[in-house]
Design a protein that fits this description.
The complex is a heterodimer of chains A (411) and B (124). Chain A is of the alpha+beta class. Chain A has two domains: 337 residues, no CATH class; 51 residues. Chain A has nine helices and 23 strands. In chain A, strands 6-5-19-20-21 form a five-stranded antiparallel sheet. Chain A has a five-stranded antiparallel sheet with strand order 13-17-14-15-16, covered by helices on one side. Chain B is an alpha+beta fold. Chain B has a four-stranded antiparallel sheet with strand order 2-1-3-4. In chain B, β1 and β2 form a beta hairpin. Chain B is extended, with a radius of gyration of 25 Å. The chains are: A alpha+beta (411), B alpha+beta (124). Chains A and B meet through α2, α4, α6, β8 and β9 of A and α1, α2 and β5 of B. Chain A: Keywords: ATP-binding, Ligase, Magnesium, Metal-binding, Nucleotide-binding. Chain A: InterPro entries: GSPS_pre-ATP-grasp-like_dom, PreATP-grasp_dom_sf. Chain A: This is Glutathionylspermidine synthase family protein. Chain A: One of its GO terms (molecular function) is metal ion binding.
């Protein structure tokens, strides 16, 4: 994998904004504006590298499913900070029923020199970065390297995943909900994009802020603003928040009600399903290491402390965007990120350095749609943690490795 | 930068993979419908969902949302109302559409002032 400087397209910001990326920059606390979409460089991967990464994503997904199965069979919920019996029952029921699931994104550390990619976390409940990976970087490729290819079948796979999932949906529209708290437009546009893919799959779609979802007590059902029942809902809002929200009790009641009992007919089917809260919880990393020690794509990880790890990263189980992460014993990369978290517990994972391309530190986001590898999105940071100031950099795939002027690689 | 000469030659194996695992370079992407509508709405910085308010159906005046969220029969006069004119508490509404009593909203979302997505752009 190489990082190659390139001139940005004239008017690139207008271009990506017209494609829906209205959050092309990141405002900083001191009033500056950093690029989020960054096309003054791109990453070039060989076909062999993409093949390996695809296989890695497919294999990791299967390992994760086996980990979930293990946690449920062994009643290991407390290790994930899940102590509410209603949540346990809902997760168990959801896993047994295996309702439709759409997508997820593995964050991988990849050294770019042929070594195995290492799993940093699995964003399997509410991943973002989708619109830029599926659409914007594809159009960038068409504009800049029309004869080249990209690891990117996200759009087609999402449409197909909706089409397949629809067989299990109740009659009526799919309600796609985003939180209106986010003012950058990222969440609304990500949801709008997913709604678009559902519509292209032939589904009727209604979009609304999740704050506007109504609970109609008379019929014990969720309704939209036109009082239509919400039977199938996509939410870009994490389950660990839902179960603590005021409507969490109603949702858990529906998820745990007897399949043919009261309320079952009016129940809402949520995407992603609640069992995926186990995948998006970083305790998963420790369970994976326990079940598959020395797997080449996993890093040692423990819940009870760093044990014998001399260089390690402490991550809150429900941490987001790198908040509160602590890197210890890693020299210049040792850091304590601001933020709160950790009330539910921590996972201690062996530190693995992100590659350094002239000060740019990429993390690979390997997308999985309907359980299959579907594409790649690369975010890079200036430091060891991929945080709020990370930028999205497009990529392309080459049939074989080529002579290119690329950034100096520092292992 | 778009011309890489022989580097673009795909082997038959590549082509086979491309059919099933990657997007072929000729596949067009078209976005429309709900996506374009959302983009337009965002660009205009407005949302029709903002217009919902609670009214007293005996007087057709706007009242506090808590009466519509109350699911008891004591406040059955309170219905949700969307569209039209009249937004401030105490003002008359007209031209919109009346919903029904007993629908509570606001029970999801707004957690800690954060968005719910993970791992994209997060600086907003």
């Amino acid at each position: 994998m190489r990082r190659i400087p390139i001139d940005a397209r004239p008017g690139w910001r207008r271009t990506v904004e017209a494609q829906g990326l209205v959050f092309a920059t990141t405002p900083t606390a001191d009033g500056r504006e950093l690029p989020y979409w960054y096309e003054s460089a791109y990453y070039a991967l060989t076909t062999d590298e993409v093949d390996v990464l695809e296989d890695t994503a497919a294999q990791l997904h299967q390992l994760c499913l086996r980990a979930v199965e293990h946690v449920i069979a062994e009643e290991g919920f407390a290790r994930f900070g899940i102590t509410d019996e209603r949540v346990v029952a809902a997760v168990r029921r959801s896993w047994d029923a295996r309702p439709p699931s759409l997508y997820g994104r593995f964050d991988l550390a990849y050294d770019g020199r042929g070594g195995p990619a290492k799993l940093l976390e699995y964003n399997a409940d509410t991943p973002t970065g989708l619109l830029e990976a599926a659409i914007c970087q594809w159009y960038w490729l068409q504009d800049t390297h029309p004869a080249a290819d990209q690891w990117n079948s996200l759009h087609e796979r999402l449409v197909e995943a909706w089409r397949a999932a629809a067989k299990a949906f109740a009659p009526g529209p799919v309600h796609v909900t985003h939180t209106s708290v986010d003012t950058s437009g990222e969440e609304e546009m990500t949801c709008a994009y997913l709604a678009e893919t559902a519509q292209q799959a032939g589904l009727e779609v209604v979009t609304l802020p999740i704050e506007q979802v109504g609970w109609q007590r008379r019929d014990a059902r969720f309704v939209d603003l036109a009082l239509r029942p919400i039977r199938t809902a996509f939410k870009l809002y994490p389950w660990e928040w839902i179960v603590r929200d005021p409507f969490g009790a109603q949702i858990l009641d529906q998820l745990t009600a007897a399949r043919s009992g009261n309320g079952a007919a009016a129940a809402t089917q949520w995407i992603e399903p609640i069992w995926k809260m186990l995948l998006s919880n970083k305790a998963l990393l420790a369970v994976l290491w326990e079940l598959f020690p020395d797997h080449p794509n996993l890093l040692p990880a423990y819940l009870d402390g760093p044990r014998d790890l001399t260089r390690h990263v402490a991550k809150p189980l429900l941490g987001r965007e790198g908040d509160a992460i602590r890197i210890t014993g890693a020299g210049a990369d040792s850091i304590v990120q601001p933020g709160t978290g950790g009330a539910e517990g921590w996972v201690h994972q062996q530190y693995t350095p992100l590659p350094d391309y002239d000060g740019n530190r990429p993390v690979l986001g390997a997308w999985v749609v309907a359980g299959e590898p579907a594409g790649l999105g690369i975010r890079e940071s200036d430091g060891p943690v991929t945080d709020y100031h990370a930028r999205f950099v497009p990529h392309l795939r080459r049939p074989f490795c080529c002579q290119l002027n690329s950034a100096t690689y520092t292992p | 930068m778009g011309n890489h000469g022989g580097n673009n030659v795909m082997t038959s194996e590549d082509a086979g993979r491309g059919r099933t695992r990657r997007r072929g370079a000729a596949v067009p992407l078209a976005l429309g419908g709900v996506f374009v509508a959302s983009l337009a709405t965002l660009a205009a910085c407005s949302s029709d969902t903002d217009t919902e308010r609670c009214i007293d159906t005996r007087t057709n005046t706007v009242i506090d949302d808590k009466y519509c969220a109350d699911t008891s029969t004591a406040t059955s006069y309170a219905h949700w109302y969307t569209g039209g004119s009249g937004f401030k508490i105490g003002s008359k509404v007209s031209g919109g559409e009346e919903g029904e009593h007993g629908v509570a909203r606001g029970g999801l979302g707004g957690h800690g002032g954060e968005g719910g997505g993970e791992g994209g752009h997060a600086g907003g």
